[in-house]
Amino acid sequence: MVTLRRVSDIDELISSAALAFIETVAAIQAPGGGLHKDGVARVVLTGGGAGIGVLRELARLHEAAQQQGSDYPALAVDWTRVHVFFGDERNVPVSDPDSNEGQAREALLSKVGIPEQHIHGYDLGAVSMEHAAQAYEGEIRDFAPEGFDIHLLGMGHEGHINSLFPHSEAVYEDTDHAFAVHDSPKPPSERVTLTYPAINRSQRIWFLVSGEEKAEAASHLVAGAAAEDWPAAGARGTEETLLFVSEDAAQQL
């Protein structure tokens, strides 16, 4: 079942999702917390306007919490106890403006003191996509063997998530956790993406959806349509599937 969290607009969506992220990760970081029972959060980040907006808001809230001091402590994420993964990546170096990892580093990761070895990128631009996909399987196996605590997902107007597009080869993948995409209909065409076997091992899947052009896809997501037609409908958390949705994208719900 998909739980709805309706908000007025993208600004409220970003604020609500960022605050929920902090509250949830802080709880995971209690002794023995999280899927792995080690107080370390494994999270998957997403790009796009809402996704990067949430990361910028997390950076702002982190700075504000640091400035509060011990007299008025604010709830905050301990970024030294977070491992970060990416739902997909374009076949470009991290320095390229199209890189999801590069955008995440600029918006958040460079500002919060997360250990470099906790940022699990695909190394695209340096290795082949097939090699990158295979290596990412190892990253997940080594650093998130039980799955992810939170997987953030944007969604396209046709219902795509990560780089899983309707009726694409990747949307039918049911074994590998990472998949090389050579024909993405949304440029750039070459990408590596997490697949349903990885996505659906997430305890919490949070969709970040805004824009009236996404209203039809949002309705199919909630209704549980066929995943090959509307890929977002195939993503379900093991404990929670939460849709942060602005009013313009909620018109058909």
Automatic annotation (TrEMBL):
Give the EC class as a word. Answer: hydrolase
Provide the reaction this enzyme catalyses. Answer: 6-phospho-D-glucono-1,5-lactone + H2O = 6-phospho-D-gluconate + H(+)
Which InterPro entries does the UniProt record give? 6-phosphogluconolactonase_DevB, 6PGL, Glc/Gal-6P_isomerase, NagB/RpiA_transferase-like
List the NCBIfam families hit by this protein, alphabetically: pgl
Q: What does this protein do?
A: Hydrolysis of 6-phosphogluconolactone to 6-phosphogluconate.
Membership in a protein family = Belongs to the glucosamine/galactosamine-6-phosphate isomerase family. 6-phosphogluconolactonase subfamily.
Q: What is this protein called?
A: 6-phosphogluconolactonase
Q: Which organism is the protein's source? A: Corynebacterium aurimucosum (strain ATCC 700975 / DSM 44827 / CIP 107346 / CN-1)
Give the gene name: pgl
